[in-house]
Amino acid sequence: MILKPALSVILLSMTTFGDAAPDPGFKRISINLILETKEDLGDHRFFIKSGANLEEVFLHGSERTSVPPLGAGAYYSAGTLIAVPTRNLENVSDAPGERELSELRQAVYQGKVPGAVELLNHRFSREVSEAEAGSFQDPVYRIERDPQAGLRAVYVSGGVTSSEPRETRSSGLRFWQSAAAAVVAGIFLLFGITILGVLYFRKRAMAL
């Protein structure tokens, strides 16, 4: 029981580090995923999986669909677009249950539906230079049929296409931030174990 507070503090420290503020001159922006299609894809259902959430995405013919982040923080900074054949979901209940996700959504989230295809991975947040932030456009993908995979996502426009996630001079600073977080976590863990040991031996002494 004594270890639980210590572990909670450790997890909180890791989450805080993951949400650290951007470096000077950079800005963290939120990025929606834009989807379109020119085909009738009624034989599939689409879901976006991010963090602990899974939401259904509806494509409306030639109209573009904007998919926002499903939550805040580093845990929801990325997501996966999943396509599932409708016929493979006919015998799975989508009615709300005691769990956060229905039986159907649990099956999709856990990858247990036959024929499910991961179409793309998307980053809902990104650090960009302040100059780039003003002109950054949400990435657009077109969902179309594929002879081999069944469906595929084809890049259309927007987003970052010419460069990979930056590795800047701040990597050294982030290393020391990470090391400091690990030291703090270790101290709290050691403190929790020490308290647990003291209580254990005190209890034994009183029993004697």
Summary of the model, kept short:
The chain has 208 residues and is an alpha+beta fold. It is 31% helix and 28% strand. It folds into two domains: 1-23 and 168-208; 25-157, no CATH class.
Please tell me about this protein's structure:
The chain is α+β, with helices and mostly antiparallel strands and 208 residues long. α1 packs antiparallel against α4 (171-207). β3 (44-50) and β4 (53-57) form a beta hairpin. Strands 5-2-9-10 form a four-stranded mixed β-sheet, with no helix packed on it. It is flat and about 80 Å long. It has two domains: 1-23 and 168-208; 25-157, no CATH class. The protein has four helices and ten strands; from the N terminus they run αββββββαββαββα.
Please tell me the total number of domains: 2
Reading the helices and strands in chain order gives HEEEEEEHEEHEEH
How many DSSP H or I helices?
A: 4
The neighbouring-strand order within the major sheet is 5-2-9-10
State the helicity in percent bands.
25-40%
Task: Give a quick account of the main beta sheet: strands, pairing sense, barrel closure.
Answer: 4 strands, mixed
Based on the structure, what is the oligomeric state of the protein chains?
A: single chain
Q: Classify the secondary structure makeup into a structural class.
A: alpha+beta
Which of globular, elongated, flat, extended, rod-shaped describes the shape? Answer: flat
Whole-angstrom Rg: 23 Å
Mean pLDDT: 77
Low-confidence stretches: 1-17, 161-178
Strand residue percentage: 25-35%
